[in-house]
Design brief:
The chain has nine helices and 15 strands. It has helices spanning about 30-40, 70-75, 85-90, 135-145, 175-180, 200-205, 205-230, 240-245, 275-285; strands at about 20-25, 50-55, 60-65, 80-85, 95-100, 105-115, 130, 150, 170-175, 185-195, 195-200, 230-235, 255-260, 265-270, 290-295. The protein binds adenosine-5'-triphosphate and zinc ion.
């Protein structure tokens, strides 16, 4: 357990200083580290280090197994954790989900062999279920009034049905390809998951810690909002302004600057990525020309 033998990580920091646990090496690691760097935290993350200190924020980062992170947060070994929601659900811990982070998407599903006649999870309440998520599986079938035999396997759960070891699986899937590869068919979704930022309940009650947690939340919000928008600059005849304004749902009214050419203006605004191409087409129709588009780094409203 990483909670022992962490001298240097321990709790003698400045008032309000925070500890955050992240996955050391796995599916969430790369995006988690890049999120932390994108909010301006400076720290070393290379190699097999167990923890690192931020140079420019009162925060230490602990690198651990993802399975251990919910418990670290619940016990207060760390104040914050970034981990799949599926593991918070699995461990059933008391922690506050502060923010869904928009990566590490996956679903916890019930799957059976492709040729199985089973269509509904209710048909499995007395069956044998192979899973790496025994608590989630048990909870789910208990909610249907069932008590199936839960066979806990830590890897390659998907092969259990073809081996005759289980009648069904409760497994995580992102694209469904592993299911198909193993002749499995999804019959139910138990949980939609993504990486989430969770906090220890007592840390949230500590005013100094809470203030720093809120700084982190504000920064993550700013970076994530920026990803949703593009910055758009265009030139247009003044007469087209009303039509252009009607297209731009923008965050607020656009910035309009007169150009040297009489009767022409430059319009600056932010456009939501989702409807981006549609908006660009409508802007051109409305009379906009010389449209420049750039990415945004942060948005603070
Ligand atoms: P660790 O060594 O930290 O215990 P692990 O092998 O248990 O790692 P990963 O496979 O790296 O865990 O998955 C980490 C998290 O990534 C999962 O808990 C889940 O939230 C998310 N995830 C996203 N897509 C998938 C997927 N297709 N299969 C499994 N997990 C996924
Ligand atoms: Zn794990």
């Amino acid at each position: 357990m990483a909670s022992q033998n962490m001298s240097g990580f321990g709790g003698h920091g400045v008032e309000g200083s925070l500890k955050l646990a992240v996955q050391r090496s796995g599916r969430l690691t790369e995006e988690t580290l890049s999120l932390l760097h994108s909010i301006g935290l400076e720290f070393e993350s290379y190699g097999q280090r167990l923890f690192s200190h931020c140079r420019n924020f009162p925060l230490s980062i602990l690198y651990g197994r993802d399975d251990d992170i919910p418990d670290y947060v619940a016990r207060g070994t760390v104040d914050l954790g970034i981990v799949g929601r599926n593991l918070i659900h699995e461990e059933g811990i008391d922690a506050e989900e502060l923010l869904a982070l928009g990566y590490g998407y996956c679903t916890l599903i019930v799957g059976v062999l492709r040729d199985s006649p089973i269509e509904h999870p209710e048909e499995l309440i007395n069956a044998r279920i192979a899973t790496s998520y025994p608590n989630s599986a048990r909870k789910f079938f208990a909610s249907l009034g069932g008590n199936p035999e839960i066979i806990t396997i830590s890897g390659s759960v998907e092969v259990a049905p073809s081996l005759g070891l289980a009648d069904a699986v409760v497994e995580l899937t992102a694209t469904g390809s592993t299911l198909i590869l193993n002749d499995l068919r999804q019959i139910h979704t138990i949980l939609e998951s993504e990486a989430v930022l969770v906090a220890n309940v007592d840390s949230m009650k500590d005013p100094a810690k809470r203030a720093n947690i809120e700084r982190i939340l504000m920064r993550i919000d700013a970076v994530r909002a920026a990803k949703r928008y593009k910055y758009v600059m265009m030139n247009a005849p003044e007469t087209a302004l009303d039509a252009i304004r009607a297209v731009i749902p923008g965050m607020k009214s656009p910035t309009v600057v007169p150009l040297a050419d009489p009767g022409w203006v430059a319009v600056h605004t932010a456009l939501e990525e989702e409807a981006f191409w549609e908006s660009i087409e409508r802007l051109r129709k409305a009379g906009a020309t010389e449209i420049l588009v750039s990415s945004l780094e942060k948005i603070l409203l």
